[in-house]
Every structure is written in structure tokens, then in C-alpha cells.
Amino acid sequence: MNTLLEAFGLVLQTDVLLAILLASIYGLVVGSLPGLSATMATALLVPVTFYLSPIAAIATIISASAMAIFSGDIPGALLRIPGTPASAAYTDEAYAMTRKGQPEMALGIGLWFSALGGIAGTISLMVLAPPLADMALNFSTYEYFWLAFLGLMCATLVARSSPVKALASMLLGLLVSCIGIDNPAGTPRFTFGSTDLLGGIEVIPALVGVFAVSEVMRAMVSAEPPKLPYRRFGSILKGQIALTRQYVKPQVRGNIVGIIIGVLPGAGADMAAWVSYAMSKRFSKTPEKFGTGHPEGLIEAGASNNASLASGWVPALLFGIPGDTITAIAIGVLYMKGLNPGPTLFTERASSMYALYIIFLLANVIMIPLGIIMIRVASLVLLAPRASIMPVIMLLCAVGAFATGNNLYSVLLVGVFGIIGFVMERNGYPVAAMVLGIVMGTMVEQSFVTSIIKSDGSIWPFFARPVSAVLASMTIAALLWPLGVWLWNWRPRRVA
Amino acid sequence: MQLPDRITGLFLVVLGGLAAYGGSRLPPVPGQQIGPNVFPMVVGFGLVLCGALIALGVGRRFEEAAEADLSAHSDLPGNAPQAARWWRGLMALVPPALLLFYVLAVDRLGFALTAGFMVLIAAMALGARLRLALPLAIVAPLFVHLVFSKLLRVPLPPGLLPMPW
Questions:
Q1: Which of A239, A325, B28, B69 is most buried (CB neighbours < 10 A)?
Q2: Are the Cβ atoms of B62 and A161 closer than 8 angstroms?
Q3: Residues A419-445: tens digit of each pLDDT
Q4: What's the whole-model pTM score?
Q5: Interface test with A, best of B91, B98, B103 (most A CBs within 10 A)
Q6: Min Cα–Cα distance to chain B from A83, Å
């Protein structure tokens, strides 16, 4: 109880509350602009978080990302252009609803079920994290090795692309993490004599490049999205309570799927929305109505993508394994703020963790009034020409990267990773898998080498401990899964 | 920069091969089985394998399914109408080139001039008229300088044109 009061004390500070409000507005604006994703919003926030208190820093990331994921629904429903990739799965459905003359309903579903989904995700974080932390206290390097390895495999399995390309992207990320002297032997690797490379590739500039600069590059070669015509909206939340009662099952299913996908490393809100929309159609009594402006799929997918946001923090806080691309950035901020991820975070810094839950709940509650305002002014925000936004973002990338270490080498890194991200995305290589490789490479190697030294070169202890045996079998199953699917698909064709 | 899978796959094979070779030349740590050379070699061999599979077109089907899904559900703005011209593709390189310019010039020219130039060029490249690009190139650096230098205390170089604050 004392911890809870302490946590409220941490959150109810002027700077934290102000940070939540400003980050929410920022998230809503960035999310609603097509081409600017929630991950990018988070990446650009990082330099600002340096100068905030730890709780305020986490608060900005949580509120900005939650708002951006909802806000991406706005241009989706009104223009058939998703504001963030997380809205892409049900953009068609929402737009069909707008064409039927119910834009309020489409946007209201997006807002209401996003907020409910976010709260469900937060509850999952509150329920899942402490028992897992208790268990994780007994983990040794063997378990950490398997966890990290399993996380990397998950990222390749759930990518919406060819699994081979996802695996290649992940390996590319691991290769990037090899650079520098940050390895168990302290030998300079792939530094080519450069002193800047000795310290390795810093994660934050790499992520800013991959998620922000590459978007600016994409804008250079793609057509500008059309402007949003001004439109007067009726009541946004009208009928949402009735829909909540009517579609309990899809909503709960959306929440659960979102939570599970959020916990899986590397898979985030966009994946959650795709899976939930497909599931909703599969299990619906009226699948023929999908695509004609039917609320069921919207509810399930809208609930799912916001639920995944909070549960993505579970592996991030417990093990330092990012649940999605947003938490990949958040982990960097956690380290910088002295809140090093790990199970002890829940015992030693319990009040900070409670504060994090409170911020999540708060952000999802204020999402409703702020979201309504955003919907009403969206046509004004979307009036801003792209030629005025993208140059500023590019400038922020440069200054933000510089601010991470006050050296110009980071700015160069941002540019290089912008090119890498752009080329990869164009050719179907999932960028998220590479990011996971960069973030987790050191962890995989360190835990493996330490384990091998402990076991004196024997592989047996990797499988001997009960938890590591379970994790190992899961990893091996994940490794063999694509092969199984491939063989399964191969079989009928050979018969035919 | 849409390249055939054969090219990107072969690139990965070469990159993986170089990584494995570079890794193999790293000195081992005496008395330890797993030195700093093992990880790059494993990653390198993995890349060679994946690159070869990609070049052979394995897994292409999954990608096509995902792309078809995306275009069925939303209208992402496609390539610009002028994209047919070869030089439009090179426009993508404008942002990284400007970042490189920032690295090279900011210490000499100072933040305000460098940033103003970057914003001006980027806005023009995105098709803005001078009427929009010029005021933006003046206001955006001022605003960014105010936030980062004044509030966040990032040491941005003053150069030729120091800020009044």
C-alpha cells in the first residue's frame, strides 16, 4: 500500500503530468500524419527524455506511443490511408463505414476500443510482470541465453514478410551488434581502425535513422497524400456503450491476442491488428459483412493494437528484450535513466513500476477527451503540407542524434541507417527484425559465452535446468517451425 | 531502389562471407573455447545461407501474400507520378546527403546557417514553393535551437551566426 502511495506521489508531479499532456498531444499529431509512425514519434522523443526525470521520461514514451496508435485510425477512417502501420489492417473497413455516412461511428470505435484495449493491456502488464519477475530472479545466464535466442526467433516467425528475409534482417542486426569492443573478450571487431566504431553502433541513432530518416527518404519519392476535407462531426462516443455490450467476445479476443502478440519479442501493434482482424473475420457469424463497414472487425483489431502496446513492456522491463519496436527504444531510455531492466526492478524499484502502471492507465483515460478534440481538429492538422513537416523531422533527427552523445559521428550513423532502413523496406526485409538483432546481439553473445565458461565448455547445462530445458525446446521448435510449414505446403503440390 | 531478390540475396552472401572471414581472423582468447571470433562467424555463415535462399526465391510467396493484403486494405500513397524518371529515385538520397552536409559543415558555418540550408533544400526537394520553404528555413532552425540549446542545453555550435539568446 505504501508503495502505491509512493507511486502516486511520483506521478502526481507537475513535470510528470505536464510531460504526459504534451507527449499526448505530440503523439496524436504525429500518429495522424500518414508516413509518421508511433515508433518514429518515440524515436524523436529520446533526446528530450535525457533532460527529464526518469518517471517523466517513461511517461512521455508511454503516452506518445499510445496516442499515436489510436490517432493513426483517423486518416485511415477518413482518407483510407493509415496514419501508422498499426491501422493498416482495418483501414478499409473504417473507410467503408465513413462512406456509409458513419464517420463518427468508425472514429468512435477506434477511440473507445483503443482506450479499453490499452487498459486491458495495462492490466495484463500488472498481472503478468510480478510473478514472472519472481520466477526470473532464479534465472541464470543459461535461461537468459535461451530467452534472448527465443526472442530473436520469434521476431523472424511473426514478421509479415518472407521468414527467410526476416531471418536475414535479424542476422544483419546481430552483425551490427558485433561492431566495437563490447564483446566478452574486449577485442575490437570490425572497427577498421576507426575510434568512433570502437564504442560500437549506438542503438538510439541507429533506430532514429531506421525509423525516421528512412520515412523522410520515402516521402521524397512518393506522392503526397490527399488533403482531408473539412467535415462537421456528430457525437463521437454515441452508441459505443451499446457496441461494447453487443461485441463482448470480439473485444475480449482482440485484447487477449493483442496482449500475447505484444509479449512476443519484435511483434507489435501492427501485427496485432492484422492477426486480430483476420481472426475476427474467421470466427464471425457474419463474415460476409466484413469490408462493408461492419463494426466487429474494427472493434477486435482496434482493441488488439492498443492492448499490445502495454504488454510489449513485459519482456522489456523483465529481461531487456523488446516486445516491439517502441519498447526497443524505451529500453535504451530505461538504461539511461538508471532503471536497468531486470527482475529486480520489481522488487527494488517497485514504486517506479507502480508509477508506470498508473501512467499507462492515465494515458488511456485522457486518450478519450484528447482523442475527441483531435478528431475534430484533424482536418486542420492534416492541412499542413508534407514539405513543411518532413524537413523539420530531418533536422530533429540530426540534432537529436547529436544530443545523444554530443558527437557528430551519431549524425552520420543516423544518415547511414536511414539508407539501410529505406533499402531494406523497399525490398521486403522487415526492419523490426534487424532492430531486435541490434538491441539483443550483445545479450545473446554475453550470455552464451558466460554460460560456456561456467560450464567449462559443456553444452549439457544449457538443457539441464528445468526452465532452460523448456525454453530450449521452445526455441528449437521455433527454429524448425518454418521448415515444417514449408514441407507441409510442399506436400500437396507434389501429390497433385 | 527496388532490387531483384537475386541481387539483395547475393549481396547478403558476400557480406556474410566477409563477416565470417573477418571474424575468423580475430585472435582467440587463450584458455577459452569461445573467443570473439565465434559470434561473427556464426552470423556470417547464417547470412550466407539466408542470402543464398533469398537469391533462389525461397519464401517469396509469404511476401506476396502480405503485400496483397496491404494493398487490399488501404491506399498508401504510391510513387510520385514523376517517379518514372530515373533521377526521381535518386531524390531519396537527399536527406542522407543533407545529414552528411550537416556533419561536415556545422562546426564551421554554425547551427543556424547549416540547419536553415538543410530545411530549405529538403522542403524544395519535396516540392514546396519558395514562399513556404524560405520562411520555414528561418523559423525551424530558430525553434529547434531554442528547444535544444536553451531548454535541453545541447551545445550546438554558434559558427558564423550566433543566436541572440
A1: A325
A2: yes
A3: 999 999 889 898 888 988 998 888 888
A4: 0.88
A5: B103
A6: 10
